[in-house]
Design goal:
This protein is an alpha/beta fold. Helix content is about 50%, strand content about 15%. It is built from 8 helices and 5 strands.
Length: about 190
């Protein structure tokens, strides 16, 4: 009987760890800008794909303004970040440079909150003639990257480039936009 209990305990523990490993990163997206559904769906697909390339499983939980104003449906897990999508007016109160598409102000101190400004992303997408949803996904991945990477600096290539443009969207389309191998190792070490 003791062996059966021990075997059951081991199987249960392995299953629990497998469940944790299958979805270690929760990205709680609070949409205060009311991004159109099709555009948001494309953004989440790009965001998820970028992290899958880094062998990081992502669960994106999208909340609209009304849901985000109320109680959260569940407490945030250990490996979770919050990304608030705010309007241009709110963006101006945070940062007045219209070229800044997002920010993670407390990331250097271990914060888990980032802001993205969809109206600015859409303006840049139109200027570069790229899909706004795909560009939004790149910006979301970039800001989450600031939270997950201890150095929180920009890179010369990949997702963490400081400039988001049509070349990055082209890499998304080709499935080649990713974190650098060093960034991927740091992210994985922090999550697993």
């Amino acid at each position: 009987m003791g062996r059966i209990f021990l075997a059951l305990l081991v199987v249960t523990t392995i299953a629990a760890h497998a469940a944790e490993a299958s979805s270690p990163l929760v990205i709680d997206i609070r949409d205060y800008e009311h991004v159109p559904k099709a555009e948001m769906d494309r953004a989440i697909t790009v965001l998820t794909r970028i992290f899958e390339v880094a062998d990081v499983s992502v669960t994106a939980r999208l909340q609209s303004r009304s849901a985000a104003e109320g109680k959260l449906s569940a407490p945030l897990p250990e490996h979770a970040v919050i990304v608030c999508l705010h309007s241009s007016l709110a963006a101006l109160s945070l940062v007045d440079d219209p070229n800044i598409l997002g920010m993670a102000p407390g990331a250097a101190n271990g914060g888990r909150l980032a802001y993205v400004f969809p109206t600015r992303v859409e303006t840049l997408a139109k200027r570069n003639r790229v899909d706004a949803g795909m560009l939004l996904g790149v910006v979301l991945a970039h800001e989450v990257g600031h939270i997950l990477l201890p150095a929180r600096r920009h890179a010369a290539t990949g997702v963490m480039r400081p400039v988001c443009d049509r070349f990055q969207v082209r890499k998304v389309i080709l499935g080649t936009l990713a974190f650098t191998p060093r960034e991927t190792a740091i992210i994985q070490a922090g999550l697993f």
